[in-house]
């Protein structure tokens, strides 16, 4: 887990904690090793439809460059400034644009444009049809999550606690909203989401906020997690996974906090359960799914939040956010495996290794295809097939 310190003294404290951890006994070290995978009898297969190499993703600085889809195009970017558009179904490359930036935030797609951003806060919009540069805008801080595109605006979330709404056509700033940051946070920010004319954003202080997409006026604010303990490390409650909207509900989860179901209209809480993750949740088949910080996978009932099942077969394997795909649940791990779970029982029913590098970037589901991107830039489109 990567942390971002807000003061030099706090950085020293974190460094000391890491040094102490490194001195652990061999027995303690064994307890931190990823569990070994056991053989399974698969009932489903993830079959590769197409793949492409797009270049490295900067894992050291935690770039989370999730691809985006619009108008039949799958758009992906690497950390070196290259943006690609592929035919979603065949993988045929439509265009490639080379930007003179180190991309850290992306890929935002919608309204006929593609938006990416870099560590210095420069946002760049490209034409979805041909990849030509349309406009750029400089914000105040790093952008390490995908911009949201919709309702006539592009919304960026920066690591210094700001949400900025830009006109999608011109790139001019329409509004800005600032929040106070905790002393210590995780390295990363949640990608904002535009839904029903509102911008939904998870914050580093453990709150979920809804703003009017047109002018940035706050609609509601709800606390997902309450900091606990006296040490700053214990009080880290970031929401680093994008909120998930399903119908009238929005679901979110925090690190060292809770997973919650809220009313999309006013933020009223439906239910909350203790949880710890730096990922988004997935929703499907009447459940909310979460891969927690330890590597356990949980299913919660959508209506009341009761735990339906949990799976500890992948402990300490640094799981990705779960993806609900083809009536199954899929998670990636540190060794490039995709694990397919039965959403009813939580049993692992399939496994496919798509790379030797980690799959930590959120996967993308579009119809009958699942798209996964590894840290070394292997982009894979997969289809689910059931064994007879």
> How many DSSP H or I helices?
2
Uncertain ranges: 3-29
Beta-strand residue percentage:
over 45%
Helix amount, in percent? under 10%
Radius of gyration, whole Å: 20 Å
Ends apart, CA distance between termini: 41 Å
What would CATH call the class of one domain?
Mainly Beta
Task: Write down how many β-strands occur, each being a DSSP E stretch of 2 or more residues.
Answer: 34
Task: Tell the overall outline.
Answer: globular
What's the overall average pLDDT, rounded?
89
Strand order of the largest sheet: 2-34-33-32
The helix-and-strand class reads mainly beta
CATH topology call of one domain: Lipocalin
Q: Name the CATH architecture of one domain.
A: Beta Barrel
- Main β-sheet description: 4 strands, antiparallel
Organism: Microbulbifer donghaiensis
Membrane topology: Lipid-anchor
Main location: membrane
Subunit structure: Part of the Bam complex.
């Amino acid at each position: 887990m990567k942390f971002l310190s807000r003061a030099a003294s706090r950085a020293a404290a974190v460094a000391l904690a890491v040094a102490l951890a490194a001195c652990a006994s061999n027995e303690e070290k064994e307890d931190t090793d990823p569990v070994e995978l056991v053989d399974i009898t698969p009932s489903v297969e993830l079959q590769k439809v197409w793949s492409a190499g797009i270049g490295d993703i900067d894992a050291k600085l935690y770039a989370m460059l999730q691809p985006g889809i619009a108008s039949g195009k799958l758009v992906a970017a690497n950390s070196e400034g290259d943006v690609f558009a592929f035919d979603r179904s065949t993988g045929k490359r439509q265009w490639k644009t080379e930007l003179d930036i180190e991309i850290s935030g992306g890929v935002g797609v919608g309204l006929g444009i593609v938006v990416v951003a870099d560590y210095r806060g420069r946002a760049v919009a490209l034409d979805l049809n041909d990849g030509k540069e349309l406009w750029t805008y400089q914000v105040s801080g790093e952008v390490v999550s995908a911009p949201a595109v919709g309702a006539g605006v592009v919304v960026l979330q920066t690591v210094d606690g700001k949400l900025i709404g830009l006109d999608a056509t011109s790139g001019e700033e329409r509004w800005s909203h600032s929040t106070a940051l905790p002393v210590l946070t995780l390295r990363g920010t949640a990608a904002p989401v535009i839904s029903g004319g509102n911008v939904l954003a998870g914050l580093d202080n453990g709150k979920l906020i809804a703003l009017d997409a047109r002018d940035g006026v706050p609609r509601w604010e709800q606390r997902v997690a309450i900091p606990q303990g006296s040490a700053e490390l214990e009080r880290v409650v970031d929401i680093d996974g994008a909120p998930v909207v399903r119908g009238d509900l929005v679901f979110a989860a925090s690190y060292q906090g809770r997973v919650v179901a809220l009313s999309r209209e006013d933020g009223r809480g439906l239910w909350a359960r203790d949880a710890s993750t730096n990922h988004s949740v997935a929703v499907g088949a009447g459940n909310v799914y979460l891969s927690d910080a330890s590597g356990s996978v949980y299913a919660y009932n959508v209506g009341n939040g009761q735990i339906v099942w949990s799976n500890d077969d992948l402990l300490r394997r640094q799981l990705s956010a779960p993806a609900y795909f083809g009536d199954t649940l899929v998670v990636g791990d540190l060794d490039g495996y995709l694990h397919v779970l039965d959403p009813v029982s939580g049993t692992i029913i399939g496994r496919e290794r798509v790379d030797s590098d980690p799959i930590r970037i959120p996967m993308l589901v579009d119809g009958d295809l699942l798209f996964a991107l590894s840290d070394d830039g292997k982009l894979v489109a997969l289809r689910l097939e059931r064994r007879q």
